[in-house]
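Note to self: keep these together.
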Amino acid sequence: MDDKVLDSRNTRDGLAIRRRRECLGCEKRFTTYERIEETVPTVVKKDGRREPFNRIKVIEGLKKACQKRDISIVELDNFVDTLEQKLQDKNLREVESSVIGEEIMSFLKGRDQVAYVRFASVYRSFKDISEFMNELKELLIQHDT
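Structure:
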C-alpha cells in the first residue's frame, strides 16, 4: 500500500498514464497503468428499454432534422459535445430519453425553426395534423413576441 512514483509517462496511444513505482517496504519496483473512466449514462427510453448513450445516434437524428438547412456538422458536433459533457457532469447512472430530446429541441428551436419542427414531428410523435398545427401555432406566437 505504501509506494512512491519514480516515473510517469503517457502511453503511446495517449489513453493511459504509465507509472513506474517502488514499494517503500521491500523496495520492489512495479508498473501501473491509469486510464480515464468515462461515465456516460444509460438512456431510459419511453418504452422502458435501456441502452448506452450513443452520440452517433444523436448526431444522425440532428443531421436528418437539419438536412438542407444552414447548420454545419461542426456546430452539431459542438452541441453534442456540450450535451454529453452536461450529462457526464450530472454524474447520473441513468437519464430519461425525454431529457435528451428536450435539450435537442431547445438547441434547434433557438437555431433553426424548420429543423426544430422536423425534429419535433418525429420526437413528439404527433398523432394527427391538429397536434402538429398546434405546435406550429405556438412556434409562430413565440416568434412574433
